[in-house]
Amino acid sequence: VEPPKFGPTVPEMRDILLLEIETKSGVVGVGYLILLGGGVSTIQACLKELVVPELLGRNATDIEEIWQHLWKKNYWVGRMGITVLAQSLVDIALWDAVGKKADMPLHRLWGHCNDSIPAYGSGCWRGYGSEGMIERANRYVEDGFSAIKMQSGILFDRHQDAENAIRMRDALGPQIDIMTDANMAWSADEAILIGRKLEELDFYWLEEPVACEDFKGYLRIAAALNMRVV
To answer: For the chain, how far is it from start to end, CA to CA, in angstroms?
Structure first.
């Protein structure tokens, strides 16, 4: 598997934090986090002090109740970041345990309503440059994907972003859906300017144009553009 090239260099290492929760009946559920910028020891300390003591003796199937309890208990020191990462580990591990106990995949426990779902080819990382993103997109199309996602922003100004989008559309033709992820690189004004170019190219969606907390910015962008903003 090729590592993601978000920027000019390829990251040498990613931290993976695993959590095992064992139930009284001996079922072991596993949760995991892939951390992009460190924090393993900090999350472990949070688990030890604020999370694990709240789990002992509880019914492993009370997954939503446990989530709400941890959220409320740690609200004043949490709300986002470390505490939510820690309780997410717990949430994943509990669902894993419940699926194992029922001997069913989670999509069955959750009511299974589709036999297939549409998928897109990701991994057209900005660090590969315009040509590299196009080359990877073509590989996805050759593999049978009818949609791909590329990256914008951070390494490119808005003119280069527009040029990259034009070249991608020219390379793939009108039948392939194209999405782009800016990873929160722009202001709302920039997103609207670039988004109008993307609309002309029939892009399927624009992802993370501004910081995730900028709700007003997202509403402005969505109101200004006739395309999906995610």
So the answer is: 27
* 45, 85 contact by CB (below 8 A): no
Which pair of structure tokens corresponds to residue 20?
């095992």
Helix/strand/coil (H/E/C) assignment for every residue in 67-96: HHHHHHHCCCCCCCCHHHHHHHHHHHHHHH
Cα–Cα distance measured from residue 138 to residue 110, given in angstroms and rounded to the nearest whole number:
35
pTM across the whole model: 0.81
The alpha carbon of residue 23 and the mean position of all alpha carbons in its chain are separated, in whole angstroms, by: 29
**Tens-digit pLDDT profile for residues 161-210:** 999 999 999 999 999 999 999 999 999 999 999 999 999 999 999 999 99
CA–centroid distance for 79 within its chain: 19
Nearest-angstrom CA–CA distance, 71 and 48: 16
* DSSP secondary structure of 14-30: -EEEEEEEE-TTS-EEE
Structure tokens belonging to residue 61: 């199937």
